[in-house]
Amino acid sequence: MARKKLRVALVGQGFMGRAHSNAYRQVGHFFDVPYEMETAVLCGRDAAALAKMAATWGWQETSTDWRAVVERPDIDVVDVAVPNVLHAELAIAAAKAGKIVLCEKPLAVSSEESARMRSAVAGLPNMVWFNYRRVPAIALAKRMIEENRVGRVFHYRAQYLQEWGNDPTRPPNWKTSRAGAGSGAVGDLMTHSLDLALWLNGPMREVMAMQHTFAQGRDIDDATLVMVRFANGSIGSLEATRYAVGCRNRNAFEIHGGRGMLGFDLEDLTRLTWFDATEPRDIQAARKLLVGAVGHPYAGNFWKLGHVTGYEHTFIAALGDFLGALSRGERFEPGFDQGHRVQLAVEAIQTSAARGGWVTVEQGE
Amino acid sequence: MARKKLRVALVGQGFMGRAHSNAYRQVGHFFDVPYEMETAVLCGRDAAALAKMAATWGWQETSTDWRAVVERPDIDVVDVAVPNVLHAELAIAAAKAGKIVLCEKPLAVSSEESARMRSAVAGLPNMVWFNYRRVPAIALAKRMIEENRVGRVFHYRAQYLQEWGNDPTRPPNWKTSRAGAGSGAVGDLMTHSLDLALWLNGPMREVMAMQHTFAQGRDIDDATLVMVRFANGSIGSLEATRYAVGCRNRNAFEIHGGRGMLGFDLEDLTRLTWFDATEPRDIQAARKLLVGAVGHPYAGNFWKLGHVTGYEHTFIAALGDFLGALSRGERFEPGFDQGHRVQLAVEAIQTSAARGGWVTVEQGE
Amino acid sequence: MARKKLRVALVGQGFMGRAHSNAYRQVGHFFDVPYEMETAVLCGRDAAALAKMAATWGWQETSTDWRAVVERPDIDVVDVAVPNVLHAELAIAAAKAGKIVLCEKPLAVSSEESARMRSAVAGLPNMVWFNYRRVPAIALAKRMIEENRVGRVFHYRAQYLQEWGNDPTRPPNWKTSRAGAGSGAVGDLMTHSLDLALWLNGPMREVMAMQHTFAQGRDIDDATLVMVRFANGSIGSLEATRYAVGCRNRNAFEIHGGRGMLGFDLEDLTRLTWFDATEPRDIQAARKLLVGAVGHPYAGNFWKLGHVTGYEHTFIAALGDFLGALSRGERFEPGFDQGHRVQLAVEAIQTSAARGGWVTVEQGE
Amino acid sequence: MARKKLRVALVGQGFMGRAHSNAYRQVGHFFDVPYEMETAVLCGRDAAALAKMAATWGWQETSTDWRAVVERPDIDVVDVAVPNVLHAELAIAAAKAGKIVLCEKPLAVSSEESARMRSAVAGLPNMVWFNYRRVPAIALAKRMIEENRVGRVFHYRAQYLQEWGNDPTRPPNWKTSRAGAGSGAVGDLMTHSLDLALWLNGPMREVMAMQHTFAQGRDIDDATLVMVRFANGSIGSLEATRYAVGCRNRNAFEIHGGRGMLGFDLEDLTRLTWFDATEPRDIQAARKLLVGAVGHPYAGNFWKLGHVTGYEHTFIAALGDFLGALSRGERFEPGFDQGHRVQLAVEAIQTSAARGGWVTVEQGE
After folding, report:
1. How many CB atoms lie within 10 A of CB C300?
2. Percentage of chain B with pLDDT > 70?
3. Are D282 and B274 in contact (CB < 8 Å)?
4. I need a surface site. Which of A47, B349, C97, C283 has the fewest CB within 10 A?
5. Nearest-neighbour CA in chain D from C61: distance (Å)
């Protein structure tokens, strides 16, 4: 099988740049896709750090001028992994140059931006790095919902709880200001929960929310709490915060339906909690499925049952699935469409938090 | 030590009547109080069932006329364990007769009622059976908060999740109608969470809430969700539902503060989760304290560490503490004052759910 | 239903005396048996302490002369809760007086003793307080084994791990000397595991064991480790120790069979772990059954699902079952027969530990 | 920094070959070592499968003649990942050719073999792939033991429990015959436990063991149970089996000492259980350290706290540490010396199982 080369330009040299670099390096080892990813150009602002990172991860070139790189004809894929406020400009420029566009989440800092971005990539393969859809346990949850193992949903509950807001030794960075991130916990953390909620439980009709800032002088939300009415008749609550002391990275959800319950927590990402309410009552109990059994999502890609995978594999699997869809000419999800929908939900949340009361969530079409 | 006899009349022959009967039988075995509880009269509507229950639990007499019993001079204590809508009438009658009045939770079905009840018992020893304050793990949480082990509180999160709403084989009862219970999940379940929240985290300034009914034709809330702004600057979320499939009896809370985190779940009632954020980062982790160690609340009353106690002991301990306070002439908490405050919170929640938006919680004084 | 009075003489005023007293007080509240237990005489050595305990628990009389009491015609039941080395003398005296005889575990300190005790009670109702058979989760395990949910057993693994041996502040007591207890961890802790193993997994063919004493100058085993070949073809390991720092009271077992796995830990005594290996592989996982559901053992006796019971209930249930068997004229298990078999296993273990190598376990008949 | 090229020949095309290939690919991304690993030649028996695997993982050449490859002057490193019975021949040939020799575990199928292998690599850099020493949680356990957080050790308990022996659909392979593997559970699974026990708890003085075969006609042990007396005065038990239904891959240990307790389970490999017995009793409890915090082993290599790593990272870290030691001219552990010691323990175990009773463990020097 001859594999087509796809030459990538990655803009971003932080933690996410590293996670994406790893995905480019690893995807071919675990996914049988007809592409060879060439790590062509690494773009950023700090030339010395770029050189070091390029040497470590095998990027062929570095550049501090992403505009020039994005227009180079030898580049097939532009991957945007910079602070949120810069996503729109970069992604739209890449789209104008006709590139395949991959963008970190949240897609944008406003729905006006995300709408423009979505329009810009029309007809081009595109992806938002909502990597948690590719956690094997979450992919299994999706499948089990489709198999009607949950039944009519009553409750959807999501948390994304971190604690670093409480660390006084931590210096401010782009994530703690409106100028860099556009928003706080809602954009950084809750967008993950929103993407999963929309994927697993369908559209939201309306939300009622509050936002709170604990740190003096900060202009973004340290915590966001939301109540939701979903189109399927279920109700939900979402919580995202950087002040949940004791929680390293609790990206969790629970879904209660008439036929069963599903639960997940990223701190135990190899397991999916399942309660089967259709069994006889005396043997009903929550079980924690250790993901990776034959037949589970991605079981054939990585190692074997009991030999656990971790955080980085969600990026590899996202990329693997994207390339698979690309090779089949299929539309990939989550793309900018889904990223825009998440942004519409964020905006309804922010509106509700500002004025109190229920706010309708626009559906993006 | 000569022990004073206290003759009890218990009104109620259901599950709670049984739990209270057990408390009267057991309190003297585990608490060194200068009273001997005499289980004098058991009142209810069903004479045959009363006779059977009285034989089992050693009630000296039975009666289907609680009004007559409440006024008998040989009765010292009246214990109200009937459907919520009847609490006020009974408790007020008992108070008028000058009795010690104990009442099941929720104290009332409206704050107008609870205000009248509170006035009626002024000067009389009184108690609301918010038994969960006496779970040893929760009493330990209270102590640890007072020891400043949590620090400035950021988040308070409570859930009371049951699943029986989803059981189609279950017949309606007084708990599923406004006529019997006054409300649904909010009165039955969330009042427990509210009492604990007020006790552990202090007064609530305002709430924003939603209520939802899943079952067709039911006139009460099957689920209630609340956001809270507490007077201490923390924010909170409360959830109570009878449709959380997979949850037998998850009465849980988590408190995140600048110095640590506490967590509890009634399904694992012998443990208190604690995360100490003042330790060096590399050894920080949640631990589950097995309650009952020397120095823990109620460790001297029941068995020994690792020999666990359960649900019924919360009633025994509530009664034991009440009698201890009585013997010392101290005011007991939670009394009708606290029960009234919970009712004020319930009413703010119901108001918010009805009209949307934030509603101030009245403080009851 | 007129209930026959059974007048009890309890010999023993320690922790176990208290647990038994509670059982006599509570059994009639939770078990519908045609007997009324009269707590007639409490015997012990310390008259002042006896008086206090009798007042607390409602014993009608106290005595420091158990020999006289045991022969009194107004006594129906003699309950032996004294140090192990005294069991034989008391139980045999009670049997000679024709009493119903209940005895704490371990039944004896040698198989010679236990054989004599077994002979002495022939024809008399008798019980050994191996209370853990009545943990609802363990009773459920027994039922599930009988339902063939485990299949052919491969492995049986039991631990009884405590830590107090490591506490230098703890004074020696009768449990830490051969003169008082006959043995150390093997008699005190492992006899529980042995009784459960024989009940749940059947007879043992042979054992290979080691015993170890960590404390200087102590003449009993602080820890005992055993390998077992069971008659059913499975193999097992047993461990009992007082030096398992970190373990408050881990009385645990796991059984692995061709069709499934069961697991239990007394520190989480309301749950039974179950893994169903007959399900499709992709949904197989251990589940923790919260015991108390309709249909579970003792579900009808105590409270309801999610309202947990604890340590003391195992004594109440043992007594309740004993009285039920008595009323039906049935032989109760575990009786002195079973207590003797446990003692035979202990002796094989001690022999193996002394000389190394495999030792056949005598079957007692 | 110019990095020296190390050209690798890997012999083995199975699951382990894949895990090693990944390590060669990834080590430079996470470890700052002055070597560049060149995946030069992949050797095996099945040319077609070799070609496919080489294409996936980027091996430059393939060969079905490992003898020729091992002697090629352009090869620096020979990595042995073939069935156990072939380890000695390959490793000794590689050593004779003066190569750096890496070998999968168990090092050999007899101590006679492992002794010869150890002699053969004298003076050459060498490693045995006991990868679990590099699980961050286990490396942290080692450090905490060295910091005296466990104190005088009383008990060491290890399990390696798998269940696939019970799967009747599974065809026999080299691991299920003496001809391919030399032994069963003891060599495949318990050698991991032995290496960790020797590393964490020091030399073993003597062992008493049993071995059992459940499958008819199989000539190796399906399960091995061992009791141990360690040189440090502690006692231990080890268990390895392929018939622990319900256990996917439970490679677990617990260490109880006078100052604390440590516990680990590979199915939850991102956490280390720790109980600190030096704290006040009322706040003592087991905690599960989520490994990856600043200061933890390998925290600087992979992602960040809460972004978990998995199975494959243990191979990457083993290789990273080996290369680090190589660059500093240090002796690496575990090398063939350690592999030989494990083999001596295996042999004592097998001897004891064959004849019953205690057998002295030779120390290998």
Report:
1. 13
2. 99
3. no
4. A47
5. 38
Q: Are residues A161 and A178 in the same domain?
A: yes
User: To 10 degrees, what angle do helices B15-30 and B311-328 make?
Assistant: 60
Do residue C107 and residue C240 come from a single domain? no
Q: Which of C344, C352, C320, C113 is nearest to C225 (CA)?
A: C352
Which residues of C fall below an 8 Å CB-CB distance to B?
A: 15, 19, 21-22, 25-26, 28-29, 56-57, 162, 248-249, 266-270, 290, 302-313
What is the domain count for chain D?
A: 2
In this prediction the pTM is 0.96
Please choose, from the candidates C109, C243, C247, the residue with its C-alpha nearest in 3D space to the C-alpha of residue C183.
C109
Q: Domain check: are C227 and C253 in the same one? A: yes
**What is the DSSP-derived secondary structure letter of residue C183?**
S
Please name which of C94, C81, C3 lies closest in space to residue C42, comparing C-alpha atoms.
Answer: C81
The predicted structure's pLDDT at residue D151: 98
The answer to whether A21 and A57 have CB atoms below 8 angstroms apart is yes
Q: Distance from CA of residue B333 to its chain's centroid?
A: 11
For C253, the token pair is 């077992």
List, edge to edge, every strand of the sheet that includes C100-103.
Answer: C61-63, C35-43, C4-11, C77-80, C100-103, C126-128
By residue range, what is the domain housing residue A19? 4-132
What proportion of chain A, given as a percentage, has pLDDT over 90?
91
Q: How far apart are CA C18 and CA C24, in angstroms?
A: 10
Question: What residue type is assigned to position A86 of the chain?
Answer: L
DSSP string computed for B159-213: EEE--GGG-TTSPP-GGGSHHHHSSSHIIIIIHHHHHHHHHHH--EEEEEEEEE-
Please enumerate in sequence order all residues whose Cβ is within 8 A of that of D320, keeping only pairs 6 or more positions apart, or say none. Answer: D27, D30, D31, D33, D301
Chain C residues within an 8 Å CB radius of B311: 303, 307-309
In sequence order, which residues have a C-beta less than 8 Å from that of residue A176 and are 6 or more positions away?
A: A184, A215, A218, A220
Which residues are registered as beta bridge partners of A37? Answer: A6
CATH of the domain at C117: 3.40.50.720
**Chain C residue closest in CA terms to B162:** C306
Predicted ipTM > 0.90: yes
A290 with C285: Cβ contact below 8 A: yes
Q: Work out the widest C-alpha separation in chain C, in whole angstroms.
A: 66
For residues A48 and A159, membership in a common domain is answered with: no
The pLDDT assigned to A42 comes to 98
CA distance A112 to chain D (A): 32
B149: Cα within 13 Å, side-chain hemisphere? 20
Q: For residue B238, is pLDDT > 90?
A: yes
Q: Do A302 and A204 fall into the same domain?
A: yes
pLDDT digits (tens, 9 = 90+) for B64-105: 999 999 999 999 999 999 999 999 999 999 999 999 999 999
* Number of inter-chain CB pairs under 8 A, A vs C: 43
Which of B130, B152, B175 is the last residue before a domain boundary? B130
Backbone angles phi, psi at A87, to 5 degrees: -55, -50
Residues in chain B, how many? 365
Q: In degrees rounded to 5, what are phi and psi of residue C364?
A: 85, 5
- Give Dmax over CA atoms of chain B in angstroms: 66
Chain B hits for A210, Cβ within 8 Å: 208, 227, 229, 235
Instruction: From D88, D109, D129, give the residue that closes a domain.
Output: D129
Q: Would you state the structure tokens that stand for residue B61, as one six-digit string? A: 């007499």
Interface contact A166-B247, CB threshold 8 A? no
User: If we measure between CA atoms, which residue out of C137, C207, C179 comes closest to residue C349?
Assistant: C207
Same structural domain for residues C225 and C145?
A: yes
Contacts of B355 (CB under 8 A, 6+ apart): none
* C256/D243 Cβ within 8 A: yes
The nearest alpha carbon in chain A to D265 belongs to A306
Contact C312 B311 (CB under 8 A): no
